[in-house]
Amino acid sequence: MRDMSSLDVFFVVNELRNLIGGQIQKIYQQGKAFWLEVYVPAKGAFTLRFEPGKIFITEYRRRAPEQPESFAMFARKHVGGQRITDVRQHGFDRIVELDTEKNIIIFEVFSKGNVIICDKTKRIIMPLEVQLWKDRQVVPRKPYSYPPDVVNPFMLTHTELHGMLAKSDKEIVRFLAVELSLSGLYAEEVCARAQLDKNKLCKKVTDSELLALYEAIHSLVKEFSPRLVYEDSKIVDAVPIELLIYKDKRTERVQTFMHALDEAYTAGTISETEIAKTKAVSNQLARLEHIAAEQQATIEKLKEEAEINRLKAEAIIRNVQLIEEIINSLHAARASGQKWAQIKEQVKTRMPAVKEIQERKGKIILMLN
């Protein structure tokens, strides 16, 4: 199975935004594979899986390592329990940024891959792996720097695309794959949609071919039809859109792109028995986690109510003499035949602690220090 491309990341981030508002509850690591278990109110539990070249939500639960690895323990300490506030792609790169209340988790979905925990200023606290490149360093206590920017093909104007083609010595398919970061797969698809010879030199593209190329590029993000691609009974790819280049292969339409990725990347690595057991356990755990989350919410609400009642009780004890004086004064006023409207006017100047009298309910609302 191929690694995810920038276009795949573009589509998967739209689905990962379902995690916004969720709480990070569990964190696992196995080598360079990394899992976040997130509970999202009203949606349930999700497991975000990352490994080099891949990021998606999985329905398959792996057994947690008996001995947690160091980065997982570090991540639990720094981001465990936090809520996710945003998920986005950096430009058109294979970089996913997950914002929490106090941190930013950066997933570099490259072939070597990395997970980097930063503070809100993007200063690196700890990476999964220290990496040194000629143009940047991924090391603790240094500002995080992005790889060199890549072109976003969907932001190019017709004129800008024409200028880039005129300067390129590459064939169309290589230009699309490398200079526009579309990867080989989607570069081939653009050529097929534009009905162009993929091996034609960019400098020789005509005006009509340029227009066809421009429209074919933009057509990639105007549809959404996630599919699994098969050869015989084996899954060979997962794509977010229907591709002309796969017209001779059997494809299966699925509900979400992440489900397609999960089946392609995960299902083939475990047995059918493990799949059945994993899904059953996953469903049961999701139900239990939902119940536990609801119970925890109820407990927190009761704690909050108890604290409010404690403060009220302390205020009453501190002001018991004042309260008695107010009640006695109101009783005396009523006994003397005064009407409530008259009493309320007198209270405004004489009893500043009285904020409201609800005579029909027999209530007095006080503001106590």
What's the quick description here?
The protein is an alpha+beta fold and 369 residues long. The chain is built from ten helices and 16 strands.
Protein described:
- The chain has a domain at 6-150: ibrinogen binding protein from staphylococcus aureus fold.
- It has helices at residues 6-16, 70-79, 158-167, 172-179, 183-194, 207-219, 257-265, 272-318, 320-335, 340-350, and strands at 23-30, 33-40, 44-51, 54-58, 84-89, 95-100, 103-108, 114-119, 124-127, 131-132, 137-138, 227-231, 234-239, 250-253, 354-358, 363-366.
- It has ten helices and 16 strands.
- It is α+β, with helices and mostly antiparallel strands and 369 residues long.
- It has a five-stranded antiparallel beta sheet, with helices on one face.
